[in-house]
UniProtKB/TrEMBL annotation:
This is HTH lacI-type domain-containing protein. It holds the Pfam family LacI. Keywords: DNA-binding, Transcription, Transcription regulation. It comes from Enterocloster bolteae 90B8. InterPro entries: HTH_LacI, LacI/GalR-like_sensor, Lambda_DNA-bd_dom_sf, Peripla_BP_I. Residues 2-56 form the HTH lacI-type domain. PANTHER family: HTH-TYPE TRANSCRIPTIONAL REGULATOR GALS (PTHR30146:SF109), LACI-RELATED TRANSCRIPTIONAL REPRESSOR (PTHR30146). CDD domains: HTH_LacI, PBP1_Qymf-like. Transmembrane segments: none annotated. One of its GO terms (molecular function) is transcription cis-regulatory region binding.
Length: 333
């Protein structure tokens, strides 16, 4: 990995000049500035902000990159991270990628320049090369609620188990005509939830389940489900991959004048703040947000202390939260 001395040698200037150019401090002749920047580009050099901050006593800031702040699950985990980080003496710089990989990459570049001590991320896709580059530059990072086979910086939730649990719950209530409504598999957590749900279906010999894929917000869920309700063979139950999509199912049922759970049953996932206020209260799956937050902050601090991270963390399991949105299917006589 290139050093500031390498850049200075290639540009034929002093280390002090390189430092001033990269920090954009003081007056530097335009031609000298261009020489330094060109040398840095050729060597793919980036300042080691963590090392700089350690000399200065740390920034005491962590970056937190969320995929979608309109999804009410993410504020839950952000609050847990902020509270635990505060107890450890750190502030959180919150960023929202708005489900865009391009914006996520831009945010990571911004966080590098802002010289945070570490970054916690909930990535939008399977492409995390831009995140893994942080380690090469001396910046610790942790991936929350994600599980990547080649990365030990993960604090994963067992989404497979959650998907299996919720689908099995519907089947055990007599439902066979079930509609699964899921967000894009670009986000690996939804793929894992579906794989768990699919296993439950196979165990009970149910192979013809209706599957609505790439439904990415409440309004889209409302429109998709609205077209299904009222049909001759409408589903008796819906498994939504998160509570926001479940709310879309609720609104479609209301528009069709169907009563939950008398006419259809619904389960969600995440146990967001208003899920128990829905009418009827939503049966859902609660993720261990507090424990994920604690482990994420502890893992960042461990890296800051110079400890090697060689072993992947064990997946954390959540729990089914049983409320009033599911009923047994009446037996046909």
């Amino acid at each position: 990995m290139s050093t500031i001395k390498d850049v200075a040698n290639l540009a034929d200037v002093s280390i002090c000049t390189v430092s001033r150019v990269l920090a954009d401090k003081g007056y530097i002749k335009p031609e000298t500035k261009e020489k330094v920047l060109e040398a840095a580009r050729k060597l793919q050099y980036r300042p080691n902000h963590t090392a700089q901050n350690l000399k200065a006593g740390n920034t005491k800031k962590f970056g937190l990159v969320l995929p979608d702040i309109t999804n009410m699950y993410y504020p839950i985990i952000a609050k847990s991270i902020e509270e635990y980080a505060g107890k450890k003496g750190y502030m959180i710089l919150l960023c929202n990628s708005n489900m865009s990989l391009q914006k996520e990459k831009q945010l990571f570049e911004l966080l590098k320049r802002r010289a945070v001590d570490g970054v916690i991320a909930l990535p939008v896709s399977q492409d995390i090369s831009h995140i893994q580059e942080l380690a090469c530059q001396g910046i610790p990072y942790v991936l929350v609620n994600r599980d990547f086979a080649n990365d030990s910086h993960c604090i994963p939730s067992d989404n497979f188990y959650g998907g299996y649990t919720m689908m099995k719950y519907l089947i055990e209530h007599g439902h066979k005509n079930i509609c699964a409504i899921f967000q894009s598999f670009e986000n690996s957590i939804y793929k894992e939830r579906w794989e768990g749900a699919e296993l439950a279906l196979k165990e009970f010999g149910l192979n013809d389940t209706l599957f609505l894929y790439d439904v990415n917000d409440m309004l889209a869920a409302h429109k998709k489900v609205l077209s299904l309700l009222g049909a001759n063979e409408q589903p008796t139950a819906f498994f939504a991959s998160n509570d926001m999509l479940a709310a879309g199912v609720y609104s479609a049922a209301y528009e069709r004048k169907l009563i939950i759970p008398k006419d259809i049953s619904v389960v969600g996932y995440d146990n967001i703040a208003y899920s128990f206020l829905m009418v009827p209260p939503l049966t859902t799956f609660e993720q261990p947000a507090g424990e994920m937050a604690r482990r994420a902050i502890d893992l960042l601090i461990k890296q800051l202390n110079g400890d090697a991270i060689n072993k992947k963390a064990k997946k954390l399991r959540g729990r089914l939260v049983e409320r009033k949105s599911v009923a047994k299917v009446p037996l046909k006589i």
